[in-house]
Amino acid sequence: MQELPDCLYEGKQPTLITPSSPTPNHPLYLSNLDDHHFLRFSIKYLYLFQKSPSSQTFKDSLSRVLVDYYPLAGRIKVSDDDSAKLKVECNGEGAVFAEAYMDITCQEFLELSPKPNKSWRKLLFKVQAASFLDIPPLVIQVTHLRCGAMILCTAINHCLCDGIGTSQFLHAWAHANTTDAPLLIQPFHSRHMLDPRDPPRVTHSHPGFTRTTIDKTSSSFNICKYLQSQPLFPTTLTFTQPLILRLKKTCAPSLKCTTFEALAAHTWCSWARSLDLPLTMNVKLLFSVNMRKKLTPELVQGYYGNGFVLACAESKVQDLVNGNIYHAVKLVQDAKARITDAYVRSTIDLLEDKTLKTDVSCSLVISQWAKLGLEELDFGGGKPMYMGSLTSDIYCLFLPVAGNCDAIRVQVSLPEDVVKRLEYYMVKFLDAKDKEEDHSFAQ
Question: From CA 420, how far away is CA 304, in angstroms rounded?
């Protein structure tokens, strides 16, 4: 894997793109699902497009769409009271927009960089800021390539949007880039539908959270700290529809399940096996569940804030490593079934306690980016040749595959020896004949 060439910036970079007309000036309350510490990072996408719109068209359409999505042109602040809650100062300061050139073709990029590596970071302008909260909520870089293609990288603050919300915004921007017609889905800004109750009522157990004060004295093995103490290497495994169907057939006795349930269970089991954990150790799987339609009443169409909660499945390692995903699939299904209106309301109330944090100490975290329409983005020059995450971490992503809506890419970073074992266990369900016939895993 070779290093990408440096980006060449011309003139004064970056610029601030402000809304094209006046926008409301007010603070925007963020819900407890928006502002807890686990989401204090940016969702970073990388798109490769074969054709590039003109720079001015791109900037003009962004300026217009920021009228509708004006909080993304604001700045995140900590509330003045003692709650330490976050808010968005909707002040129209603008989104960061950088433009660069890289001496490479789109085919060379795909050949040099089949999966995320550190040199990809060149493709997103690094904003100098004292803390994460000081970085503008929307940072964009367009990098023009020698062949006329472009790479679009975006960093969208997770406290403002979840995956569905980012997809909604990006499609709105693409819409504005190709037409002057009104947006098909108007963004819904208010977060008050997710206000905590007064007084808060925690009515369910929430094993996906732990109190920060407990961890300091805990003697249990912390998988997260162990992994992050070593150099990490990304792996990307592509599961096509035939492979997913084959995976489902390994579930014995036969169990009706979704693609996500089967692949999440299989990834969890393979992860546990690759880490060679004690058989009696209890491990968790945390995964995002869209709860927009699970609330009563449902969240309003166009809601782009964080409309998900983390479901939690738990198991002893010994029940995950026997080569059959049936047990894990059942646990994933049970965890999904627990996400009801009452469970979500209980979660919101629970997060009034600011000593709580997401328990990643013995957990695999899976975030679902497939099935969000991210790979369908079209600014007028065609859909992307590639779509993925700019970075890779110990948290697992299920990514879409450009040009194949039924396929899913599983991406995660682990220490080198663990990565090799994970790749082995992820494909072990295939026999030799299948491996010869299907080259989907080659990266």
Answer: 38
